Amino acid sequence: MNSPKVAVLTMEGTNNEEEAFQSWKGAGADAEIIHIKKLESGLRKLEEFDAIFFPGGFSAGDYVRAGAIMASRLRASVMEDIENFVDSGKLIMGSCNGFQVLIELGLIPNIGKNYEREAALATNLSNRFEARTVYLKITNNLCPFLKKFKINQIIRLPIAHFEGRFIPKDEDLLKEILKNNMIGLKYVDPYGKEVDYPWNPNGSIMNIAGLCSKSGNILGLMPHPERVFTKYTHSDWTRGNEEDYGQLFFKGAVEYLNEKF
Amino acid sequence: MRIIITVTLKDNVEDAEGQSVLKALRMLGYNEVSNVRTGKIYYIEMEGNDLSRGYEFCDKLLANPVINICKVEKNE
User: Of the four, A2, A71, A109, A220, which is 20 to 30 A from A173 by CA?
Assistant: First the structure.
């Protein structure tokens, strides 16, 4: 059986692509770091891959808005390929800046199925760059990236962002998100309660930390699973209370791809 | 032609940066300041005379319609 092929996209200003590459590889995928220029020029095609990963960082310096320039370049050059990729049921994941790109590309929530921007990840209410470990509750494990978790399981992942406050375009959209069970992860306190800052680091509505697409094959989240593939890169692993949460995202995805493709 | 595009947050979107500036101004003693809203200004030089292009720039890149308002003006 061939390993699933994963494109970890990069451009000026992204980071975590190396961690993402290693995470996919560690989970059994055949990963490759691809600069978006190669997609724009047609040198490489998304159809060669089984999954796409949008890494974190500060693509194009985060100028204009976080993720906006990377998204607009991809929208102008390979949007049709991305739409076909989504329709094929292959997997897409974006963490942090990658989530911001997914939102700007209209891949999430995409309730209207027209790839329009239906939400935003706005500046944290604290007006600070929040870089620390947060508690998260898994609220949906239907999405392949989350299948290795139990519903209501509390996990810890690192975050590092300035623009993570999820804002839907209106109340109806939020209702649709809830109706379709699209919230994958929520910010909580250590006991699993949905409370405000500092547990909710950015003021995100309903403590939303990660969203799955309606069909489940896309996950966007502000935390960084790729930074903690093993517990040893957690900030306080020496206290002995961490688990290898990060790798479960990638292992779930690879397992799904091996079954389906 | 030179156009000015001003991108601001919609009134119903909380402006964390504005709130920080408000706090800072008050700490400097300007107690008459009651609210601050922030935004970005783009000065764009271009060929032609079509102001509607500015709105295209907003739509394609400069603004997210969920949280932003875009104002396009000609800079005489």
Answer: A71
